[in-house]
Each structure stands twice: as C-alpha cells, then as structure tokens.
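Materials and Methods. Structural model of ABC transporter ATP-binding protein. The 335-residue sequence of ABC transporter ATP-binding protein from Muricoprocola aceti was retrieved and submitted for structure prediction as follows.
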Amino acid sequence: MGTEKQEELLQIKNLAISFYNKSGEVQAVRGISYTLHKGEVLGIVGESGSGKSVSSHGILRLTPDTGKVKSGEILFHGKDILKMSRKELQELRGNKIAMIFQDPMTSLDPLFTVEYQLNESLKKHTSLDAQARKKRMLELLTLVGINQPERRVKQYPYEFSGGMRQRVMIAMALSCDPELLIADEPTTALDVTIQAQIVELLKELKEKLGMAIIFITHDLGVVSDICDNIMVMYAGKVVEEGTSRQVFYERKHPYTEGLLSSVPKLDQKKDEKLKPIKGNPPDMSHVRPGCAFAPRCGCAMHICVKEEAPMCELDDTHKVSCWQVVRHEMEEQKR
Ligand SMILES: Nc1ncnc2c1ncn2[C@@H]1O[C@H](COP(=O)(O)OP(=O)(O)OP(=O)(O)O)[C@@H](O)[C@H]1O
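The predicted structure was written out as tokens:
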C-alpha cells in the first residue's frame, strides 16, 4: 500500500498481540500487516477495542506486562524493533519515533513550566547548548502555531486551553525531529473546530518536516483530509485498506460503511441523521469462527459466520476482507 518509489520506513508483518488474564487470552491484535513509507500519513480507524492502540503502542514496545507479542515483525528501516537491545530501543523512542496522545497531560507535567519541560526534552534528545535550546524552543512553539512564544513558554500547562496544550505536546514530540509520529486519538477530546485546527497543523508539519504519521482515530471523518492511506480495523484485524480516496469513495466493507454513517461530516445537513452501527464489538477473549463483524452486519451470508473471508486485492492499494466482495469478484470474473 502507498506511494511508489518512496523508501519504506516501517513494515509490520503479521503482528499478533494478546493479553492474558484470569479468564484466559484476550486476542487484541490478530495478525496485521502494513507498510508505511517515508513522509506518508496512515490513518488507523475503528471503534473502541478494535486494536488500534495496542498495535501502535507495540511499535515502541510499549505493550503492558500482561500482554505479549505472539508473532510478527516490526521493521523500522529494515531492522526488527522486537529484536532491538534496550539501548537501541531508547535511541529509537523519542529520537526517531515520537508519540502523542489524546490527553496531553500524559506527556506534560502539570508542575513544571513549558520552558522547563521543552528544555529537558531538548537536553535529552539533542546536543544543543543552552542558548541554542532556548532558540529552538521558541522555534518549536512558533512552528506549532503558538503566538507570543517568549511569554507562553514561561507558563504552566494549566494556563493553556485544551487545543493549545495539544500544540505544546506536539512541540515536545517534535523536539527530537522524529521520522515517525504516532498520534493516538490526538483530537478526540477537543471540540470540532479545534479538532480541525490540530489536523490542519499536523498536515502542515508533515509537509514542512516530511515526517511520516500514524493517525489513530475512531472517527473516519477526521482523517479524510490528512491521510494518504487508511486502514480500517475491527476485532484486531484489518478489514479494509486503501488510499484515502478509495476508503471514502469506493469503500466495500459493510463495517467501513457503518463507520462513515455513524460520524458527523463537516458538511452534514441538519436533517441528515447519524446511523450508529447496531450492536457491540465482540469480546476478544472468546473469538468465534467466521467474520467477527458478521453478527452486526446487514449483509451477512451463511459463510460469514463459518469462515473468515480472504483478503481480496481489488488493485495494488485497495484490499478488503469480506465474502460479499469475494462473491462479487467471482461473478465479475465469470462474465
Ligand atoms: N492492558 C490490557 N489488558 C487486557 N486487555 C487489554 C489491555 N489493553 C487493551 N486490551 C484489550 O485489547 C483490545 C484492543 O484494545 P485497544 O486499546 O487497542 O483498542 P482501540 O481500538 O485502540 O480502542 P480505544 O480507542 O478504546 O483505545 C480490547 O479488547 C481491549 O480490551
């Protein structure tokens, strides 16, 4: 998937991650694969519990102790992160790959000024001297759209609004000049206008700095504008992937369709009602055979509850795992 000729930055191959608790195994991620090229933006979309965060946190080996990578490879510039030493991993975290979260306070300490925190981050990740760090701090704050950086840098996180705090967190993440930024629901807690501003900022940064971004969200509407490619996850698996245009305008999986109908669009008409997907995602500690979405799917056939559909390659970039699509493709071939 992705733009040709560009260098491959990250390759995930057949990654499976499970948690183990008293009631057994929770199969959070069940064999996902994708490739991210340099400077590319990939959206990972799906409802809560679909495995977006677990798979992405796994890239930095941030899987909690109760979890285990069961299989797979996570290649960064061709080198398997899962086999890296502690030292190599430290070098990677924050230097090559940075992460931002839904709640900026995960990364910001309420007890220290922004200046102190940015300075510490620059000390850790760069060899700049004190004067150069001061200059870089102001540059970073300006880069993320914070006005009067000389004044604001002296303030504490609580003195910033939600959207502005998110900008500070992005500045912190950028302090090490990452090649890849993992953004885990960075706009979810913000109101719609601010959400759009943060997405716009990330888009500008991607263009200016050329970094790749993995943008995790449950809201397909949010990522339409920024992503090159989109991967739709359900119950720990990829059910559809393609370019942003394909997923929006040529989507084939009923789950993708459901996701799009359940979120407000920017041009939503007043009388146009949102249609939430009926039912709930499955319990991943009791995975049943067949397509995990079948019990909620309006188009489910007999085979859907028995067997999982193969990943159908509609073209070089567009792939879907759905028996309806398989059937349609077979009928097309017969003609
Ligand atoms: N520490 C944990 N222990 C046990 N199960 C976990 C743990 N973390 C996640 N899970 C399970 O793994 C599955 C995937 O969770 P994940 O957080 O990746 O989903 P998500 O798509 O990112 O949703 P959300 O947006 O709610 O975080 C879920 O079934 C979840 O309950």
